[in-house]
From TrEMBL, chain A:
Transmembrane segments annotated in the record for this chain: 28-48, 54-76, 88-106, 112-137, 144-163, 183-206, 236-258, 264-283, 290-309, 315-332
Membrane topology type: Multi-pass membrane protein
CDD domains: TM_PBP1_transp_AraH_like
Designated name of the protein: ABC transporter permease
Source organism superkingdom: Bacteria
GO molecular function: transmembrane transporter activity
Cellular localization per UniProt: Cell membrane
Primary site of residence: membrane
GO cellular component: plasma membrane
Pfam families xrefs: BPD_transp_2
Swiss-Prot/TrEMBL keywords: Cell inner membrane, Cell membrane, Membrane, Transmembrane, Transmembrane helix, Transport
TrEMBL record, chain B:
Keywords assigned by UniProt, alphabetized: ATP-binding, Nucleotide-binding
Organism annotation: Naasia lichenicola
Domain ABC transporter: 3-246
Residue ranges the record marks as coiled coil: none
Record-linked InterPro entries: AAA+_ATPase, ABC_carbohydrate_import_ATPase, ABC_transporter-like_ATP-bd, P-loop_NTPase
UniProt-recorded Gene Ontology molecular function terms: ATP binding; ATP hydrolysis activity
Protein name: Sugar ABC transporter ATP-binding protein
Domain of life: Bacteria
Length: 342, 260
C-alpha cells in the first residue's frame, strides 16, 4: 500500500488530474517527436515534402499501422503477438496461390470477384492464425511470447513451402489497380481503408464493453476472472483481431507490389511492436491508445522512408527501428520509476 | 434473510481442516470469525464463497439448502467475498472498477448490437452508491493506483456490498491499514450491515472485531470452540478462547440445537 494515512482530498484530486494529463502529454510528446523528425528530413532532403513521398509514406504506413492496431489490443491485454509479420506473408501467399492456381485466368469468375475472393481468403487465413494463437495462449496456457514465436516459425515456413519460396505474380490486376490508386491524386485507397479501421478501433477500445475489458484484463487478469468474465474467450478474440488485421495488411501489401511474396511481412512484427510501444502502450498491459499507435506508426514509417530519401543504405532501416524501440521502452520505464518514487 | 452452515466438515488427504462446523449470520448483523493461523478460517471462507466444496454438511440460505459449486453460484445466491488482494485494476478509474463484469450498456442499437457502454449512467450509479454508504473517495474519476490503501479497501467493500444481496465475506479488511483508515473501514462495515446485509468479518485484529461485530465465532483446530456475544467481551478473554486457555461449555447449547 502506497499512500499515507488520511491523504488530503485535494492532493488525491490533483493526482487524478495528473493521471489524465500523463496520457495527453504522452501523445503530445509523441507528436512533437514526429514533427521534429519531419523537420529534420525536410532540412536534409528537398524530396521529403513532395507529393510522391507523401503517397509512398502514407501507403507504407497503412501496412505498419494495421499490424500496430491489432498489436495495440494484444499489448493492452498484457500479451504480445510476434506472429503478425509471418501471418501477413502466409495470408498473402494463401490468397495469391488460390487466385493464381485456381481462379486464373479469371475469365470465368471475373477479375473483381476473384480479387474479392482473394481478399476474403487472406483475411480468413489471418483470422485463423490469430484464433490458433488465442487458443494456444488462453486454453493451453502457453505464454504469448512462446506461442506466437512458434506460430511465427510455422507461418513463415508454410508461406515458403506453398511455392518453394517463389513470389506469385499474375494476381488479378484489380488488386494492383486499387492498391495503387490515389483519390484526387493525393489519397491512396489503402489510406482510406486504414482510416476506417482506425475509426472502428478507436470506437471499440474506448467506447465498448469489449475495449473496457481488454484494458481490465491487462491491468489485473485475476480481477477479471474473479468478476466472472470469460477471460479465455476474450483473449482468443484479441488475438483473432490481430490476425485478421494481418490478413487485411497482406492484401494491401499484395496491392502495392501487384504480387504475393513470402517475404512480404519480414521484420513487420518488429515494426508493429515498435509502433505500439512508441505510441505509449505499456508492455505490462492495461495502458495504450489507438491514437498513440497512429502517431507511433507515423514515426516508424517516416524514419523508414526518410532514411531512403537521404540515401542511407536500406539495411540501416531495421537497425534504426530496433534502436528506437529499445529507446522508447527505456524512456517509458524511467518515467514509471520516477512515478513510483513520487 | 440468513445464511447458515450446518455440520460442515472438510478434509485434505486425511487431515481435518474443519470438523462439524455450525455457523450462521442473519441480515443486518456483523459476525466475527476469529482463530489462530491454521484454525480453518480460510477453508471456511472458501467454502462459503464457493471456491471450495465441503466434504460433508451443507449450507442453508433462508431455510433452503444450497450448493455453492463455484464463486459464481455463490454470488447468484447473494453471497460475495472481498479477498485481501481486493481484485482492483490499478490503472482504471473508480467507475470502471466498480462495474467490472457488470458494465451497463446503452439502450437501443448502440448498446445491444455495438455493445457501447453507458458511462454517464455508470458514473451516476457509482456516485449514488458511494454516497449511500457515506464513503470518502475523493472522486469516481480517479485511477485506483492514486487511491490510498484505505480508499482501495473502501472501494472494494462498497463494490461488493452494492452487488451483494445477502451476505458479504470480508477477509482481513483492516490488516494493512493505518489507524484512521481502519476506523473508516469499520464504519463502512457497520453501514453495510445497517443496509440489511449480513457481514462475516474475518480478522486477526481483536480490537476491530470487538468494535464492529455483534457475535463472534472462535475457530480452533477446525472446530467452533465458542460463540460469543461481542458486547460483553474484552480482547483478553477473546484471545483466551482463541489460544484454548478458556474453554466454553457448549454441551448445553448443542443440546438445545439438537432438540430444536
Amino acid at each position: 500500500m502506497t499512500a499515507t494515512t488520511a491523504a488530503p482530498q485535494t492532493a488525491t484530486t490533483r493526482l487524478s488530474a495528473y493521471g489524465t494529463r500523463i496520457g495527453r502529454s504522452r501523445n503530445a510528446l509523441t507528436a512533437g517527436v514526429l514533427l521534429a523528425i519531419c523537420i529534420l528530413f525536410t532540412i536534409l532532403s528537398p524530396y521529403f515534402l513532395t507529393q510522391a513521398n507523401w503517397l509512398n509514406t502514407s501507403t507504407t504506413m497503412t501496412q505498419i499501422l494495421l499490424l500496430g492496431l491489432g498489436q495495440t489490443f494484444v499489448i493492452i491485454s498484457r500479451g504480445i503477438d510476434l506472429s503478425v509479420g509471418a501471418n501477413l506473408s502466409l495470408s498473402g501467399m494463401v490468397a495469391g496461390a488460390f487466385m493464381t492456381g485456381v481462379l486464373a485466368p479469371y475469365e470465368s469468375v471475373g477479375e473483381v470477384p476473384s480479387a474479392l475472393i482473394g481478399a476474403a481468403l487472406a483475411i480468413g487465413t489471418g483470422l485463423l492464425v490469430g484464433i490458433i494463437n488465442g487458443l494456444l495462449i488462453a486454453f493451453l496456457r502457453i505464454p504469448a511470447f512462446v506461442a506466437t514465436l512458434g506460430m511465427l516459425g510455422v507461418c513463415s515456413g508454410a508461406s515458403y513451402l506453398l511455392t518453394n519460396g517463389q513470389s506469385l505474380s499474375g494476381i488479378p490486376t484489380a488488386i494492383g489497380t486499387a492498391g495503387n490508386y490515389n483519390i484526387l491524386g493525393w489519397i491512396p485507397v489503402p489510406v482510406i481503408v486504414t482510416a476506417i479501421v482506425v475509426a472502428v478501433a478507436i470506437y471499440v477500445l474506448s467506447q465498448t464493453r469489449f475495449g473496457e475489458r481488454t484494458y481490465m484484463l491487462g491491468d489485473n487478469p485475476d480481477a477479471v476472472v474473479r468478476a466472472g468474465i470469460n477471460d479465455r474467450r476474450h483473449l482468443v478474440a484479441v488475438y483473432a483481431i490481430s490476425g485478421a488485421l494481418a490478413g487485411l495488411a497482406a492484401i494491401i501489401a499484395m496491392g502495392r507490389l501487384a504480387s504475393a511474396s513470402p517475404t512480404a511481412g519480414a521484420n513487420a512484427e518488429l515494426q508493429a511492436i515498435a509502433t505500439v510501444v512508441i505510441g505509449g502502450a505499456s508492455l505490462y498491459g492495461g495502458r495504450g491508445t489507438i491514437f498513440g499507435t497512429v502517431l507511433g506508426a507515423a514515426i516508424v514509417t517516416v524514419l523508414l522512408t526518410g532514411l531512403i530519401i537521404i540515401q542511407v543504405p536500406p539495411f540501416w532501416q531495421v537497425i534504426t527501428v530496433g534502436v528506437v524501440l529499445i529507446t522508447a521502452v527505456f524512456l517509458d520505464q524511467q518515467k514509471e520509476l520516477r512515478a513510483a518514487k513520487r | 434473510m440468513s445464511l447458515e452452515v450446518r455440520e460442515i466438515s472438510r478434509t485434505f488427504g486425511g487431515v481435518n481442516a474443519l470438523s462439524n462446523v455450525n455457523f450462521d449470520v442473519k441480515a443486518g448483523e456483523v459476525v466475527g470469525l476469529v482463530g489462530d493461523n491454521g484454525a480453518g478460517k480460510s477453508t471456511l471462507l472458501k467454502i462459503l464463497s464457493g471456491a471450495l466444496q465441503p466434504t460433508s454438511g451443507h449450507i442453508v440460505a433462508d431455510g433452503e439448502e444450497v450448493t455453492f459449486t463455484t464463486p459464481h453460484v455463490a454470488r447468484e445466491h447473494g453471497v460475495s467475498a472481498v479477498y485481501q488482494d481486493l481484485a482492483l485494476a490499478p490503472q482504471r478509474d473508480v467507475v470502471s472498477n466498480f462495474f467490472l463484469g457488470k458494465e451497463v450498456l446503452r439502450t437501443g442499437v448502440s448498446g445491444t448490437v455495438f455493445r457501447r457502454l453507458d458511462r454517464p449512467a455508470m458514473r451516476s450509479k457509482v456516485i449514488s452508491e458511494l454516497a449511500r454508504l457515506k464513503t470518502n473517495l475523493p472522486s469516481v474519476d480517479v485511477e485506483v493506483r492514486n487511491l490510498s490503501g484505505g480508499q482501495r479497501q473502501t472501494l472494494a467493500i462498497a463494490r461488493a456490498a452494492s452487488w451483494c444481496e445477502r451476505v458479504l465475506l470480508l477477509d482481513e479488511p483492516t490488516s494493512a491499514l493505518g489507524v484512521a483508515q481502519q476506523a473508516e473501514v469499520l464504519q463502512l462495515i457497520t453501514r453495510v450491515a445497517e443496509s440489511g446485509i449480513g457481514v462475516i468479518f474475518i480478522s486477526h485484529q481483536m480490537k476491530d472485531v470487538l468494535a464492529v461485530c455483534d457475535r463472534i465465532f472462535v475457530l480452533r483446530l477446525g472446530r467452533i470452540v465458542a460463540e460469543l456475544d461481542a458486547r460483553e467481551l474484552d480482547a483478553e478473554t477473546l484471545i483466551g478462547y482463541i489460544t484454548g486457555a478458556i474453554v466454553q461449555d457448549r454441551s448445553s447449547e448443542n443440546l438445545e440445537r439438537n432438540t430444536l
